[in-house]
Amino acid sequence: MLERVAVLSDIHGALPPLEAVLAEPDVAAADLIVLTGDIASGPQPVEVLDRLAALGDRACWVGGNGERELVEARAGRKSPFEVANWAAEQLRDDQVARLAALPLTVTLPVAGLGDVLFCHATPRDDEEVVLVDSRMERWAEIFAGVPAGVGTVVCGHTHMPFTRLVDRRLVVNPGSIGMPYGGAGAWWALLGPGVQLRRTEYDVDAACARVVAESGFPDAAEWADEYLRARHSDAEALAVFGPRDGR
């Protein structure tokens, strides 16, 4: 049984906010760090993967659509996102192999929460959209294949933190480390015995300058300005994601 689990999602190849979160005392002291997908698709993919690999067995990796798209781009099937195509070409072969082998879900016992299923988007799909205000019928469809003993599901993908009950099952979205929608900072979650949604503040100006200085991505300055500064509000993101929720 794990007493404390830190959940980091949607890092998107941004090293400065990742380092800020890893420096948090509660993350450093956690029994396990679970990475719930979209880890490396961004301006510092090699550096982010190397930093996380250095955690060894303290980190549990779950794959997302970002990992799948990097592997596909490396194989010649281009992504619609230019940063993903660029990032795919930067990765070492061992990194590509690691991303290709990541599981879609991982279930772990966490104190106070019981069996917790971790995934990227939904338990059955790495890019399906569910939101804090998704209809109960939508959630029932999404969770149809989840074992009855799983009392908590942790998912990322939409970059907006929330917790809510879905027919007696707790759903947690930790938010995004590298592409937050709704407010600057690096958003993550701490599990056990309850759920805490956390935000780590860091020097965004210095982080943007560092990404530009250290990344070879041609549009690194624009990427950092858009995402590290959280130019997109949660209301804007919900308007974009809503139609993909079947509403």
CATH-level-2 architecture: 4-Layer Sandwich
| Radius of gyration, whole Å | 17 Å
Q: Hey, roughly how much beta strand do the residues contain?
A: 15-25%
Residue-averaged pLDDT, rounded?
A: 97
Structural domain count:
1
Give the overall form.
Answer: globular
CATH topology: Purple Acid Phosphatase, chain A, domain 2
Weakly predicted, low-confidence segments: none
Structural class: alpha/beta
Estimated helix fraction: 25-40%
Number of helices: 10
What is the highest CATH level, the class?
Alpha Beta
Would you identify the CATH H-level superfamily?
Metallo-dependent phosphatases
In short:
This protein has helices spanning about 15-20, 25-30, 45-55, 65-75, 80-90, 95-100, 135-140, 205-215, 220-225, 235-240; strands at about 5-10, 30-35, 60, 105-110, 115-120, 150-155, 160-165, 170-175, 185-190, 195-200. The chain is α/β, with parallel strands linked by helices and about 250 residues long.
